[in-house]
Amino acid sequence: PRYSSVSAAFWEHLRYLGLQDFPCGLGSWNKSRFDAHTCASRSQPGQEEAVLLDEENPEVLLELLRDPHSPWALPPDCSSQDQYLREVVVLSPELVCGSNIFQVIRTLRIVGKGVEEVDEGLLQLQELEELILSANQICRVTSANLPRTLKVLELCCNAVADLQDLCTQAPPQLQHLGLGYNKLCGPSQDKYLTVDFWPNLVSLDLSFNSLTDLLELVSQLSSLQKLRILVLQGNPLALIPTYRGFLVDSLHKLSILDDIHIGPDERHQFQGLARQRELMRSEAQLVVNIGEIKGVPDPSTHQHLEVDSEAPVITYSYSVTYEF
């Protein structure tokens, strides 16, 4: 199923988890633990014991959720956060009433649901710290609709082409921003990747976009004093021969570049490269080696005809075209 907004996908996911059904939620199996008024009104000896006999011990209910062979086990496509929610609701069933459930959700993962809009309904999740929206159809993210408590925002494999709306009121505590496999083009978007918008950013993924201006991008990223992890592979600027050395020497506090740790030896090797701007040529060379071609007949395998043969001669020729 596909949903137009994050909120719609979120509500459907909650229904999928069955938080209001046995062994979660409110029911005869745990009535005494949420109906305090009923418990207080019991006065006849033995009445309370009779009611409790019809209920299930919380540990038994949790075992039904945790046993992989149980009919109530978590579906395999769910996350550890989903399991956590179900167990919390078993121990505190009153959370399924009204908007109480919003107070315990720290992570929200909506992946591959065709979501197009990050709507204001997310603001109900006042304790949300991690929002993962990978593999959807999001073009723009309105930062006013993001909880201010957010620390992780993952938007990998969407269609984000403009960061202006995202940076208008960016979550101030954000530590990781994932924008890999989107449609970002430089240099128009470089100006939004500065400390003015992301004062606490530690990890940034910009891989597999269309960023081309390495010098301008580095001048902006250098303001991110807390940045330790950077992924830029897959962009045209990564084809520049001195790409890695220039980044290592320019961003002194960086620890990991393109998933490869930066050690003292490498940093020493590239020392001073950032000042040699003449090495940053604006063109790149791409070498393609053809290892094997399948599906094309080999002319040499055909039987050679005699010189004086009257049979017609068939000549084979092929051309291969590459489009970049």
Amino-to-carboxy terminus distance: 35 Å
Read across the widest sheet, the strand sequence of neighbours is: 1-2-3-4-5-6-7-8
Query: What is the CATH topology descriptor of the domain at 205-286?
Result: Leucine-rich repeat, LRR (right-handed beta-alpha superhelix)
Q: Structural class of the helices, strands and pairings? A: alpha/beta
Biggest β-sheet: count, sense, barrel? Answer: 8 strands, mixed
Structure notes:
- This protein is 24% helix and 7% strand.
- The two termini are 35 Å apart.
- The longest helix is centred in the N-terminal third of the chain and has 12 residues, at 6-17.
- Helix 5 (58-66) packs antiparallel against helix 6.
- The protein has a domain at 205-286: Alpha-Beta Horseshoe (Leucine-rich repeat, LRR (right-handed beta-alpha superhelix)).
- 24% of the residues are buried.
- The radius of gyration is 29 Å and the shape is extended.
- By secondary structure, the protein is of the alpha/beta class.
- Helix 8 (214-221) links the parallel strand 5 and strand 6.
- It has helices at 6-17, 31-34, 36-41, 47-53, 58-66, 80-91, 164-168, 214-221, 243-250, 264-269, and strands spanning 107-109, 130-132, 152-154, 176-178, 203-205, 229-231, 256-257, 260-261.
- The chain contains 10 helices and 8 strands.
- An 8-stranded mixed sheet has the order 1-2-3-4-5-6-7-8, covered by helices on one side.
- This is LRC43 protein.
- InterPro entries: Leu-rich_rpt, LRR_dom_sf.
